[in-house]
Amino acid sequence: MSRVVFMCGPSGAGKSTYARRLEAEGMVRLSFDVEMWRRGISTVPLPPDVREEIEAGLRARLLELVAAGTDVVLDFSFWSRRMRDDYRTLLAPTGVVPETIYLATDRDTVLSRMRARRGSDSDDFVLSDDLVAQYFDHFEPPTPDEGPLTVVR
């Protein structure tokens, strides 16, 4: 059975760095940012229709990989419990119980990391301080009752 990991944390928390390590260990990494970059999109937030199109493709790819028995790391923010629950529901028919890895990075570190971004690659999108703060302030940390959870500080 496939292993599926939800990377969870606000922009700048370190999710992509952690996910790339899992990718180097053999997992397939699926990422909104990579898909945006492939399409030539370098600004966020995405228009809703573009976001929905990208997400539909990522969801389909996730299910294909799981059906093939491949381990997958979802390098998304999983910023809300609702989003995490939605992906758990998507995976439920496959029998996969996803793990959540939450990068509990403090606000100052997140803001500092985001200010250092230059837009040089798919894991380096530049966001305004206001947008980063908004994302951080509206982030819903995962709780143990959601399923397997690892908190990285």
How would you sum up this structure, described in words?
By secondary structure, this protein is α/β, with parallel strands linked by helices. The chain has one domain: P-loop containing nucleotide triphosphate hydrolases (Rossmann fold, 3-Layer(aba) Sandwich). It is 43% helix and 14% strand. It has six helices and five strands, in the order βαβααβαβααβ. A five-stranded parallel beta sheet has the order 2-3-1-4-5, with helices on both faces. The chain is globular, with a radius of gyration of 15 Å.
The fold-level CATH name is Rossmann fold
Distance between the termini: 29 Å
Strand content: 5-15%
Kindly state the mean pLDDT as a whole number? 89
Structural class: alpha/beta
CATH hierarchy: architecture: 3-Layer(aba) Sandwich
Shape: globular
Output the helix-strand order: EHEHHEHEHHE
Question: Major sheet: order of its strands?
Answer: 2-3-1-4-5
Number of helix segments?
6
Helicity range of the residues? 40-55%
Q: What is the CATH class designation?
A: Alpha Beta
Low-confidence stretches: none
Biggest sheet statistics? 5 strands, parallel
Question: What keywords describe this structure?
Answer:
153 residues; alpha/beta; Rossmann fold; five-stranded parallel beta sheet; globular
